[in-house]
Design a protein that fits this description.
The chain is of the alpha+beta class. The chain has helices spanning 6-18, 24-39, 50-59, 87-105, 121-130, 183-192, 212-217, 225-241, 279-293, 303-315, 321-330, and strands at residues 2-4, 69-74, 77-81, 107-115, 134-139, 160-164, 172-176, 201-202, 208-209, 219-220, 264-271, 317-319.
């Protein structure tokens, strides 16, 4: 596994997508998101996704030439139609209008419809907090989790992200999938032929399994068991019922070219803390953070991610040799 500069990987990933029927601007935005995931040590949402993205663009399952459109539907409400394109360009264009609207109104919401996989939830809300606002995102995904007590997947793993602004230091960012583990980790285990821990998933018969391939064919378990399943339902309603997108059981896979576009949804909220507590909001938050860190053995969420990001900036990003060779081939750079 070799180290590569982020700038080189960005150009490589962009080339892979532009050769796969994706407009150059869209390709660049998607590539930036994947490289950011790699830099933060989140390989399951990084370059390992690129071959599937490219194949889906070639097949038309995701429209690489989509032009997301922003519509203001109420005083503090925006809607973006991703038009079955990649989620990242739709989110970026939506944020351009969401941030000033939240400052003007105190808070604002953004619904994204007919979308695709949106990667690392924390990366979506981090720029909101970097702009001095509080950010939340809720997103659904293709069916992977069954209702509590059932065995047939109906809901996605439905990630959520939260970011809180801080002065002079990076924002607090919380990012979690509502399954016990991100589905991408099971996908990677299946690709490598590795087992998974018991308690992550069920097989098609509804029985616990340590076989990654059987888990992908079965159902993932929610974090928090029945309480987690209720949270999954909540996110499904916010991300889908409000946006007019596909529920998890209606959406096609993010990992292959089969079926129609997934048309999932995302729902974002941006809050201006000055509209409520002024400077007191940030000061009160810092008091809580200090109390947390005063406890031995504690840390704030995201500290490991930031450390890995700094390391990637200094030393580059490690990419498995086989994946790198495949990306070079797809970009037309492989040696004959």
């Amino acid at each position: 596994m070799a180290q590569h500069a982020a700038s080189h990987l960005l150009e490589l990933a962009t080339a892979v997508l532009t050769r796969a029927r994706t407009e150059a601007g869209n390709a660049r935005v998607v590539a930036e998101a994947l490289i950011a995931a790699e830099a933060d040590g989140l390989a399951s949402h990084g370059l390992s996704r690129l071959p599937a993205y490219a194949d889906q663009a070639l097949a038309g399952k995701v429209d690489g030439f989509a032009r997301p459109m922003v519509e203001r539907v109420a005083a503090a409400c925006l809607r973006v139609d991703a038009a079955t394109g990649f989620a990242y360009p739709a989110i970026r264009i939506g944020l351009q209008d969401l941030l000033p609207l939240a400052r003007a109104q105190g808070l604002a919401a953004l619904a994204i419809a007919n979308s695709h996989h949106f990667g690392v939830a924390g990366h979506t809300v981090e720029p909101i907090a970097a702009a001095g606002l509080v950010g939340c995102i809720f997103g659904n995904s293709p069916a992977a989790i069954a209702p509590w007590g059932g065995s047939k997947p109906l809901f996605g793993t439905n990630p959520i992200g939260f970011a809180w602004p801080r002065r002079s230091v990076p924002p607090l960012v919380i990012d979690l999938s509502l399954s016990k583990v991100a589905r991408g980790k099971i996908m990677i285990a299946a690709q490598k032929g590795d087992p998974i821990p018991e308690g992550w998933a069920l097989d098609e018969a509804g029985q616990p399994t340590t076989d990654a391939k059987a888990a992908l064919a079965g159902a993932m378990l929610p974090m928090g068991d029945a309480k987690g399943a209720a949270l999954v339902l909540m996110v499904e309603l916010l991300a889908v019922a409000l946006t007019g997108s596909n529920f998890g059981y209606e959406a096609s896979s993010f990992f292959d070219t089969k079926g129609a576009p997934p048309r999932v949804g995302q729902f974002l909220i941006a809050i201006d803390p000055n509209a409520f507590g002024g400077s007191h909001a940030l000061e009160r938050a810092e008091a809580l953070f200090s109390a947390i860190l005063a406890e031995p053995g504690t840390r704030l969420p995201g500290q490991r991610r930031l450390a890995l990001r700094r390391r990637a900036e200094a030393y580059g990003i490690s990419v498995p040799d086989a994946l790198y060779a495949e990306l070079e081939r797809r970009a037309g750079l492989a040696q004959s």
